[in-house]
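User: Fold this; tokens only.

Assistant: Input:
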Amino acid sequence: MFNFAIMITNKTTAKKTAEVLLQIKAIKLNPTEPFVWASGWKSPIYCDNRIILSFPPIRNYIREKIAKHIEKYYGKPDVIAGVATGAIGIGILVAEYLGLPFIYVRPEAKKHGRQNQIEGFVQKGQNVIVVEDLISTGKSSLNAVRALKEARYNVKGMVAIFTYGFTTANNNFSKEGVTLHTLSNYDNLLEQALETKYINKKEMTILSEWNEQPSEWSKTKLK
């Protein structure tokens, strides 16, 4: 059976992507004063990849890398789909680079109008690659994949900018049978942050401990 694990594209891309995300503060690391996520988790990392859109050289780098890895790992699809709302911008850029149609997928269908969950034109049976900005547990990303499959589109896989590398995400993608390639991940981010002295070794230990048990970290480490 094929292992539907989350895979990074290559080491060079992973480290360069981590470097630029730290550079523009799309990713912030703060082990001593953690952020609070919408889920209620306290986290020493916060990622907002929408900031990429405000930096033309970096958004062009990310756009090109995603596009080239789509072609390398999946072949050229018929349509690019972005996951609302975070991946709409980068998804449009990737679709433009590849000269392909673009659609996006809402978390749920609208309650009014045409009540669409999938916005844009795509024909049943067409090959679709999903573009995502960030993978945490993978639930929202896979919700978009299920919506596309239920509409009878052929989802070939997904490419994302960054993943926290949670075991839960890997399990969720494996369960759904969805392949995912990411430009960078948490391990490469920490390596890059340590090399550039963004963090020290003690902070790296704290950040590594959080990644192993994110839901329990604030209870055991921040009393």
